[in-house]
Amino acid sequence: PTTIKSLYKQISNPPQTVDQINGWVKSVRLLKKVGFIDLQDGSCLNALKVVVPITQLEETEFLKSLKTGQSVSVTGALWNNTPQREQPFELKIADPLNTLSVTGDVSNSYPLQKKAHSIPFLRSLPTLKHRTTYLGSLLRFRSAIEHAISETLESDQFIKVAPPILTSSDCEGAGELFKVASTSGDGYFGKPTFLTVSAQLHLEIMALALSRCYSLIPCFRAEKSDTNRHLSEFWMLELEMCFIDDVHKLTTFVESMLRRVVKSCYDRIDELIPQVDFRDSLSKEEIIERWNLLLSPKPWANITYTDAIEILIEKHKKEPFPKYEPIWGESLQTEHEKWLADKYFNSPVFVTDYPRDCKAFYMKLNTDSPAGRETVACFDLLFPDMGEVVGGSIREDSYQLIFDEVERRNMNRSGELDWYLSLRKEGTVSHGGFGLGLERFVSYLYGNHNIRDAIPFHRSASGNIN
Ligand code: 4AD
Ligand code: MG
Known about the structure:
Elements: H1 4-9, E1 17-30, E2 34-40, E3 48-53, H2 57-65, E4 71-79, E5 90-92, H3 96-99, E6 100-104, H4 119-123, H5 133-155, E7 159-160, E8 166-167, E9 178-179, E10 181-182, E11 185-186, E12 194-195, H6 200-210, E13 212-220, E14 233-242, H7 247-266, H8 269-272, H9 284-295, E15 301-304, H10 305-318, H11 334-345, E16 349-352, E17 378-383, E18 387-394, H12 399-408, H13 418-421, E19 431-437, H14 438-446
Helix pairs in contact: 5-7, 7-9
The structure holds 4-amino-1,4-dioxobutan-2-aminium adenosine-5'-monophosphate and magnesium ion.
């Protein structure tokens, strides 16, 4: 059967007749002599207007009985071919009693109607919400972003790999693990096991075989943070490359890669972003403004943590941050990150070289940092209005230094990290990488305010599970 998307693809030379098109009724409008049905099939954000001239009473009765949400199958002729118009064609059907069949009815309480529904209301309808233009387009947009990311990375000779989800390691060392149990007991056949928080440790191992690799997998964090930027189950793009020893080479790579991804979507923006008008989202004009900011000829801002703290302290003296005083040695709080990216730079900003104790154990020590103020070769990428979207680092490649750090943090009490540490004894090389939170990136570009809507079935501290 034909899809609406395939009709749009043939827009300059559309077929005369459409043997069969299947979809769902979005809305029905009835005049005396003619009925209009908006049909959607999910293949693209456009609906197909079906025009039904009415010749007898039975037809009026039949059209009156159609309801939003019903699945239907239609045969007709393409008509009114005006390629330059927003509605470039319509499907005209004669004899609707024979050419339009309802394949699945809806209940009387079908909750979606023609009007725009609020996002919180849609979230309460996990089985139906994706049928709306707004959330359906968000699924298609996420798919387009994943595709653009793979294309960009494959062209840079990265190899996609499949790291495990079940693991015994806490990569980030933050203790935010979901523990695995089975009906026959705790863990993986009796061994302590968790859902992965990050694929990084396994990616490092594969990078030392392939030079460049990446993965896109679900990651799990038992964080209590129940905010519009946190999920318990989110997807992370992670990438690891060898022969890189400078964090600025890493930030240059991230910027170039993300610009290419955004650029490739920019060229198809009308196909990807619906024109919506409700307060749960940015308007299309605001979204374009956002994309333009990322694609601005001006390079993204780049600042060290130490310089950022100085700027934040100056600002705090004049006008204090509501919740946290900026202090060297402490993590940047969301209010600090947002002020830097939104107000100070009004640009994406890389913050590099954080204090060692703010970050994970595997990051490479900056050997030139002063004693007592040790920093590591890492970065966070902050987007205006969103905060952290990417985090990465150069990895410590010396066995002795990483071993000492793991000891200092008391992380290897029963040798659980030995498998990973041994990598530094077998042909070690400088390497680095990063992780990008897919839902944060997608939400930033789509303009939805809560990353819960960028994943089809969200899991979060307060959410339901089905
Ligand atoms: O900064 P994070 O914790 O870094 C790592 O896990 C590294 N091991 C990645 C690497 O270098 N391979 O997480 C990376 C990104 C964050 O910048 C954020 O975008 C996203 O993952 N993220 C979350 N997204 C949604 N919900 C959460 N609870 C998230 N936690 C992290
Ligand atoms: Mg981080």
